[in-house]
Amino acid sequence: MSGQMIITIHEEQADDERLEALSAALRRELMALDVEDVEKVREGQAPPGTRAVELAAVGALLVIFKESAQLVTGIVTAVRSWLQAAPPGRSVEITLGDTTLKVASATPDQQEKLIAEFVGAMQRMGASPAEPSP
Fold first, then answer.
1. Mean pLDDT for the stretch of residues 104-131
2. Residue 70 domain-assigned (yes or no)
3. Domain of 107?
């Protein structure tokens, strides 16, 4: 069973170009994990007369993965690690189903607690526990 997670990057005073660069860097990090795909979130149809078929939500990524608590923890940990090297003013929202986790300037202990709660919420939504790889 595949799961989907939306990761949205926020940075104070960042323009669209900067958010695109940040999302591309985070996408590279996430693709190194055992995820099925990481793609830009689509917002809808482009205005008439433009070449684009769809509009991308700037700074937002859709992560498609095989549902497991272990992989969700790995994704969230990778995002947190990526964020720790960031300047102040950057945060990331991770949404899985109806649950959203905002990772910003929390202490490592606070972030660990939030991650554990987030993964627990995912498990309560019916995701299967980690399966061993064949």
1. 66
2. yes
3. 2-124
